[in-house]
From TrEMBL:
Domain Rhodanese: 465-553
InterPro entries, alphabetized: FAD-bd_OxRdtase, FAD/NAD-bd_sf, FAD/NAD-binding_dom, FAD/NAD-linked_Rdtase_dimer_sf, Pyr_nucl-diS_OxRdtase_dimer, Rhodanese-like_dom, Rhodanese-like_dom_sf
Any one Gene Ontology molecular-function term assigned to this protein's record: oxidoreductase activity
PROSITE patterns documented for this protein: RHODANESE_3
Protein's name in the database: Rhodanese domain-containing protein
Length: 556
């Protein structure tokens, strides 16, 4: 059996390694038009900034290593020009010599990855100070430009993973950074009431963020001197980074009749086989499916690419591995924040038709006396099944540990009740006695059963519609006077039992504290006093004011 793999980064090399582990009889060959193999794409921004001392650390293995370790032949700087699947042959060009060779296969794997999208205004143009983070070579080019040209200012187009990571690294090098983003908020796949917290960090780091704005004009010949945006801003910078997303490289696969899925990436079955027998697709060129909904999604991540490659290499050599879908779990460090997400966002869950319970849980990652710092956890659960559907977390520390537990929990289909019963590790240097994960389970369970929550958005909607509601601030007077929800009356928790008689029990009532805990205690008192409908404001006044600030600035 002869296996040919087109592409040799994360997924392609994973196919080869797993196939070889299963059989010694297969002949395995990889072709890649790039010069490096199995490199850590996600580490490139950190090598640009010098946090990683050398790009060599991102390329620990080469073709000779794979030949010696796995008896796999990898040919870099070789581009597959065409494929004749009826004869199972392909034409390959050596990009260094220009020589064209023919090869044949029994099984074919497309690991052709994705191309970095270039905004239309830049297509067909070449500037010596405009770059994309594509591969090791492009990373070295950016690093060389920074080291030799000493740019003082940079414009980064795009505020996704790469855009924010590169912005952080350039800022750390002392370069003034401006980010231009097509959508309203950074990390647009998050719910906006979470991504606004990234904007706070942008302001703190003195990075200019221009939202709902695109470049419509470029000025300059060999060097890009300035750009004009859709809002009429003329901007100048020494360095420009385009981080505007990727598109799957499907043309070669389409040329032999491989079908694409609804996302525009290659559709496969759970073995990663395409509609053509013996032809597979893995990594950033392949479509995934959402583990919760079962629907197709395109979420190009290195972790998924490695997983797909291993599954394909196993399945094509008779193994039992099958792709089970993904949650789209992702994580990012941006200066003092860690930003993470898994499963469905609130907007995605609503679009899928779920009736959701939404919790904003603001808790430290460990006790104050161990220098704990607050995380904001937004958790979404299904009101019918109580299953956890998705979680987003933003905070300075402890986020990575929690998002991985949530990802495991969602994968296993746990409910909010299950979260409380998880036996999680506790010691003061690592967690609080009631870990934020357990507390999320407790609070969501209360919300789904006896003690419903109301989000800041929902409360603002009621206020806008002049609903007849009672809003009670249960904090101490001094906290109330520093800032409170509009039209709220102040009855501290210690006085609530005595003064509850002055309130209308039949009127919809919303109680809140600073972050939610005392609000829940107040909610229980009023429920026990016979109040008909009492809601606790999710995330308390702190969360309400953060969201109101951005809404009032027109940034929702």
């Amino acid at each position: 059996m002869k296996i040919i793999i087109i592409g040799s980064v994360a997924s392609g090399t994973s196919v080869a390694a797993k196939a070889r582990r299963n059989t010694e009889s297969a002949e395995i060959t990889l072709y890649d038009k790039d010069t490096d193999v199995s490199y850590a794409v996600c580490g490139i921004p950190y090598a640009i900034g010098g946090e990683i001392s050398s790009f060599d650390e991102l390329t620990p293995r080469d073709a000779r290593w794979f030949k010696k370790r796995y008896n796999v032949d990898i040919h870099t700087s070789h581009e597959v020009l065409s494929i004749d699947h009826s004869k199972k042959t392909l034409k390959v060009k050596n990009l260094l010599t220009g020589t064209i060779i023919n090869d044949s296969y029994d099984m074919l794997v497309f690991a052709t990855g994705a191309s970095y999208y270039k905004p239309e205004i830049f297509q067909g143009k070449s500037f010596d100070n405009v770059f994309q983070v594509r591969n090791i070579i492009s990373g070295k080019d950016i690093k060389s430009f920074v080291d030799n040209k000493k740019p003082k200012s940079a414009i980064v187009v795009g505020a996704g993973f790469i855009g924010l990571e590169v912005s952080e690294q350039l800022k750390n090098l002392g370069i003034d950074v401006t980010i231009i983003q097509r959508s309203k908020h950074p990390m647009g796949h998050l719910d906006w009431d979470m991504s606004i917290r990234i904007e706070d960090e942008l302001e703190k780091q003195n990075i200019s963020f221009l939202s709902e704005e695109v470049i419509i004009e470029t000025n300059g010949d060999q060097t890009l001197e300035s750009v004009v945006t859709s809002k009429g801003h003329t901007l100048r910078a020494d360095l420009y980074i385009l981080a505007t997303g990727v598109r799957p490289n499907t043309l070669l696969a389409e040329s032999i009749g491989v079908k694409l899925g609804e996302t525009g990436a290659i559709a496969t079955d759970t073995t990663m086989e395409t509609n053509i027998n013996g032809v597979y697709a893995v990594g950033d060129v392949a479509e995934s499916f959402q583990l919760i909904t079962g629907k197709a999604i395109y979420r190009p991540l290195a972790s998924t690419a490695n997983k797909m490659g291993r599954i394909a290499g196993d399945a094509m050599t008779g193994g039992p591995l099958r792709f089970q879908g993904i949650l789209g779990t992702g994580i990012l460090r941006f200066f003092n924040l860690t930003i993470a997400q898994t499963g469905l966002t609130e907007k995605e869950a609503i679009k899928e038709g779920y009736e959701t319970a939404v919790l904003f849980n603001i808790k430290p990652d460990k006790p104050d006396y161990m220098h704990g710092e607050e995380m904001v956890i937004k958790a979404i659960a299904d009101k019918v099944s109580h299953r956890i559907l998705g979680v987003q977390i933003i905070g300075p520390q402890g986020v990575d540990k929690r998002i991985d537990v949530f990802a495991a929990a969602i994968t296993l289909g746990v409910t909010s009740e299950d979260l409380f019963h998880m036996d999680l590790a506790y010691a003061p240097p690592f967690a609080t006695t009631k870990d934020p994960i357990a507390y999320t389970g407790m609070a969501l369970t209360n919300a789904l059963t006896t003690s419903p929550l109301i989000t800041p958005h929902e409360l603002m909607k009621l206020q806008k519609n002049r609903a007849d509601i009672t809003i009670v601030d249960t904090r101490v007077k001094s906290s109330y006077e520093k800032g409170h929800v509009p039209n709220a009356i102040n009855i501290p928790l210690a006085e609530l039992r005595e003064k509850s008689s002055i309130l209308d029990k039949d009127k919809l009532t919303v109680v809140y504290c600073n972050k939610g805990v005392t609000g829940n205690a107040s909610q229980n008192i009023l429920r026990n006093e016979g109040f008909r409908e009492v809601y606790n404001l999710s995330g308390g006044n702190k969360n309400y004011q953060e969201i109101a600030k951005r809404r009032n600035n027109g940034r929702n």
